[in-house]
Amino acid sequence: MTQFAYDINDFNLAATELCRYGRTLYQRDWSPATSSNYSIRLNDHCCALTSSGKHKGELTADDILVVDLDGQPLPHPQHKVDARPSAETLLHTQLYRRDPAIGAVLHTHSATAVVLSQLWPEDVLTLQGWELQKAFAGETSHEHPVAIPLFANDQNIDRLATAVEQRMAQQGQGHAYLIRGHGVYTWGKNISECFRHLEALEHLLGYQLQLLQLQQPIGTNNK
């Protein structure tokens, strides 16, 4: 440990990974412009997190901050004066506080996730019968239902984080959740597993969106 309460080498590795995945997510059109935020746990007390308002296809190490699990920035010798944590920091730290096994969190804004979140009428989207569900850690069968909760968008992030925690405490942590008209959050033991979850989820949400379109083709009215 250093005077900065985390290992600088760990931070440098996390920053490199966050920048690398940022480019990948931007290229896949899952993180357009300055949308989205990503984080990697550094230890039991803090995480590396993308700063607010940064283009995710052009991230550099200067765009990565360190925050404690209360969402407060911690000092780093390379941080820019004007850098500030993502407005949605508490949605990351809620997960790190809840589960010490979570090592990374990705929040993205793909068209598929955002559109489906607006169309889905229920507060839970249940995935079942899809072979790709087994890409989620711990899932061994397509027959097991995977619940993806949906939350109303809320600019009060503290209130939204509380709602997410309450739901998880009552119904289980799961693998991901959607915010209506906003995007998706998913997590994993490390950034690689987290990305695998996100990639699988993007396809699974795409399947559900196509099913909705087939059941009620765009441009037609039910009589």
TrEMBL record:
Q: According to its UniProt record, which cofactors does this protein need?
A: Zn(2+)
InterPro entries on file: Aldolase_II/adducin_N, Aldolase_II/adducin_N_sf, MethylthioRu-1-P_deHdtase_MtnB
Class II aldolase/adducin N-terminal domain: residues covered:
16-209
Coiled-coil ranges from the UniProt annotation: none
A GO molecular function assigned to this protein is: methylthioribulose 1-phosphate dehydratase activity
Specify which residues bind Zn(2+) according to the UniProt entry for this protein.
107, 109
Q: What is its EC number?
A: 4.2.1.109
- Reaction catalysis annotation: 5-(methylsulfanyl)-D-ribulose 1-phosphate = 5-methylsulfanyl-2,3-dioxopentyl phosphate + H2O
Q: Gene3D superfamilies of this UniProt entry?
A: Class II aldolase/adducin N-terminal domain (3.40.225.10)
Its annotated pathway? Amino-acid biosynthesis; L-methionine biosynthesis via salvage pathway; L-methionine from S-methyl-5-thio-alpha-D-ribose 1-phosphate: step 2/6
- Cite the cofactor comment: Binds 1 zinc ion per subunit.
Alphabetically list the UniProt keywords.
Amino-acid biosynthesis, Lyase, Metal-binding, Methionine biosynthesis, Zinc
Function per UniProt: Catalyzes the dehydration of methylthioribulose-1-phosphate (MTRu-1-P) into 2,3-diketo-5-methylthiopentyl-1-phosphate (DK-MTP-1-P).
Family indicated by similarity: Belongs to the aldolase class II family. MtnB subfamily.
Recorded protein name is Methylthioribulose-1-phosphate dehydratase
List the source organism.
Answer: Bacterioplanoides pacificum
> Which taxonomic lineage is given here?
Bacteria, Pseudomonadati, Pseudomonadota, Gammaproteobacteria, Oceanospirillales
